[in-house]
Specification:
- This protein is α/β, with parallel strands linked by helices and about 210 residues long.
- The protein has seven helices and nine strands.
- It has one domain: Formyl transferase, N-terminal domain (Rossmann fold).
- Strand 4, helix 4 and strand 5 form a beta-alpha-beta unit.
- Helix 1 runs parallel beside helix 6 and helix 5 crosses helix 6.
- The protein starts with a strand and ends in an 8-residue tail after the last helix.
- The relative contact order is 0.14.
- The chain binds 5-O-phosphono-beta-D-ribofuranosylamine.
- 5-O-phosphono-beta-D-ribofuranosylamine binds next to helix 1, strand 5 and helix 6.
Length: about 210
């Protein structure tokens, strides 16, 4: 059974989609938020999932927060860490610790529009397509090997909110499927890219290089 730890900051609708997908061979071991009032925490707790809130404002530095966060995550022996609307810039040390086993979903077709306000920016640029991207997390914000993308047409009269709502529906399909593939050993990072099939399986069997140990 693979342990998944999900990090959220707010409503946690992507976290809910992953929990409700009932991914074979995997369990959501914990949901952790950096905001004690994150609505998704109560939703997870009601379903018997372990929850924790680590208020980032209580820590003197980004490093101190990330160290406490890693300790909380590691208490659940995670095979995979899933960022689902987790609104924090992560330190390089934190991203290295979970290299190849931490996913994020971003509401744009990366590499377009990393960062915030993606839908506003897509509309501003007159994009005809918008969408979302699931990727492995690296030290560079909203970069990292791409696992899956979904696109929607931008419609006449779209607002940032209407576009966000349409993309969010897609996120709820794309993210559980990406997590399922990881849990099933169908995907892995090989030479900085996402490999699938036998290549991914082989990489998961090979010894962990000492730099990642
Ligand atoms: C999603 O649009 C996700 O792509 C972005 O933040 C939003 C989180 O929504 N990173 P939710 O908390 O999963 O409902």
């Amino acid at each position: 059974m693979k342990n998944i730890v999900i990090l959220i900051s707010g409503r946690g609708s992507n976290m809910q989609a992953i929990v409700e997908a009932g991914i074979p061979g995997a369990r959501v071991a914990a949901v952790i938020a950096n905001r004690p009032d994150a609505a998704g925490l109560a939703w997870a707790a009601e379903r018997g999932i372990a929850t924790a809130a680590l208020d980032h404002k209580a820590y003197a530095s980004r490093e101190a927060f990330d160290a406490a966060l890693a300790e909380t995550i590691d208490a659940h022996a995670p095979d995979l860490v899933v960022l689902a609307g987790f609104m924090r810039i992560l330190t390089e040390g934190f991203t290295r610790r979970y290299e190849g086993r931490m996913l994020n979903i971003h509401p744009s077709l990366l590499p377009a529009f990393p960062g915030l306000h993606t839908h506003e920016r897509a509309l501003e640029m007159g994009c005809k397509l918008a969408g979302c991207t699931v990727h492995f997390v690296t030290a560079e914000l909203d970069h990292g090997p791409i696992v899956a993308q979904g696109a929607v047409s931008v419609l006449d009269g779209d607002t940032p909110d209407s576009l966000a709502a349409r993309v969010l529906k897609l996120e709820h399909q794309l993210y559980p499927e990406a997590v399922r593939r990881f849990a099933a050993g169908e995907i892995a990072v090989v030479d900085g890219k996402v490999a699938s099939g036998p290549e991914a399986a082989a990489s998961l069997l090979s010894p962990v290089p000492s730099s990642k140990a």
